[in-house]
Write a structure and sequence with these properties.
This protein is of the alpha+beta class and 187 residues long. It has one domain: HIT family, subunit A, CATH 3.30.428.10. Helices cover 28% and strands 13% of the residues. The protein has a five-stranded antiparallel sheet. It is globular and about 35 Å long.
């Protein structure tokens, strides 16, 4: 049996968890946080809302790609695909009908620019754009409005989401944020 450090748990077959084997398992333990709701705020009021708190942090730490005057662009912590961005107004509002004209225009402009930037970085074949309005519609944080910009590639919906309820993302979020932030230039 191979020698492993004392703090590494060894399975009954003598293999370290996550080690390559005949099944070529894909380990995605980070998804359990999302599935279990561990990062979902119990209190989503403005003082505790992650979309209100993110702009108070450093861009790299908060995964903010771009800041606008009344809205900002941030990577989704639980992306459907690499480069999945959220466009959020700074104001803590929950309904699309509450946006001001300035927020409406900047959310649209940031969405349009996000698509251009993502295309230059990773060449997707298309996008899903949308707002999940309310928890029943799929909003993970329904108290703070956010627009999804999800890049898509041909064949990106394979067996993993169907069989394993998971996505394989080939890049760390910090690396994706750096690529997109570096590519985001003002015209």
């Amino acid at each position: 049996m191979p020698e492993f450090p004392a703090d590494v748990v060894v399975e009954s077959d003598g293999e370290r968890p996550g080690a390559p084997d005949a099944f070529q398992r894909l380990w995605t333990p980070h998804r359990m946080v999302y599935i279990g709701g561990e990062n979902k705020p119990a209190d989503d009021t403005a003082g505790q809302c992650p979309f209100c708190l993110a702009p108070q942090r450093d861009d790299a730490d908060a995964l903010i790609v771009r800041r606008g005057r009344v809205a900002y662009v941030v990577l989704n912590l639980y992306p459907y695909s690499p480069g999945h961005l959220l466009i959020c107004p700074y104001r803590h509002i929950s309904d699309y009908t509450e946006v001001t004209d300035a927020e409406l225009h900047e959310i649209a402009a940031l969405t349009r620019r996000a698509m251009t930037v993502i295309r230059s970085v990773s060449k997707p074949a298309g996008f899903n754009l949308g707002i999940n309005q309310g928890e029943v519609a799929g909003a993970g944080i329904a108290a703070h409005l956010h627009q999804h910009v999800v890049p898509r590639w041909l064949g990106d919906a394979n067996f993993l989401p169907v069989v394993a309820q998971t996505k394989a993302l080939p890049q760390l979020l910090a690396d994706t944020r750096a690529l997109l932030a570096d590519a985001w230039r003002d015209d």
